[in-house]
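fyi for ur records
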Amino acid sequence: MLRAFICLTCGTQYPPSQQPPASCDICADERQFVNPSGQTWTSLDEIRKSHRAVISRYEAGLYGIGATPELAIGERALLVCSSSGNVLWDCLALLDDAIVDFIRALGGLSAIAISHPHFYTTMTEWSRLFGGAPIYLHRSNKSWVRRSDAKIRFWDEERISLNNEISLTRVGGHFEGSTVLHWSGTADRKGALLVGDSIHVVRDRRWVTFMRSYPNLIPLPGEVVQKVANAVADLPFQRLYGAFWENVIAKDAKNAVVRSAQRYVHALQCDSARN
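which gave:
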């Protein structure tokens, strides 16, 4: 029997096969890690038996979709609602009836957009269950796609619009094709930035950071961090939503990105001067 195996550590889904892959390429990369207890695999059917959906409203038109117990890297997706069509930002390995019914009740999906390879997971199933919604991935990350699909649209530009309220910007950093989503259609019209972990919200919610690897604490060069900040400098946003449930900056988010990049670059310059 063929199964599309899913890495239990990172959530990446592989093409259907009789036996699981020997290893997970995503976990073997220095930005991720192989579980100390060894490589383990699951499938969407098994996840549906062991997990249930958690859906929570962040603000008008923005919902978090996750799983309990925590799944893979603890990921959760975001559903952005707009008058021109709803967009799923990032992806979740779990996809069950509760999630499908919830999204369909809000009008379904017009597109799926994913920040970077650590969230590619079951994107093929999501697309198929929502009428073949196109999946937008930056072409720079194409080599990290483990399960290809005709609905994947690789884009090359630095910025594209999905509709009149939602755009994608390549910021790089964590991955070469790391992407953020800008949503101008917030109820207060002040805008929001959805970032995956291209820009990572830290415990002090006045600040963010930027890393090549978060679990392995591999920093980025200062010039790369500045490029990430510059890529979003012209976007208006009051709030910033990171990769995980509590990673939210509720106000003054744009200034948080600016001063955090300045602090990061300054710290590296000081260290270089001392050496």
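The chain is about 20% helix and 25% strand. thats all i got for now
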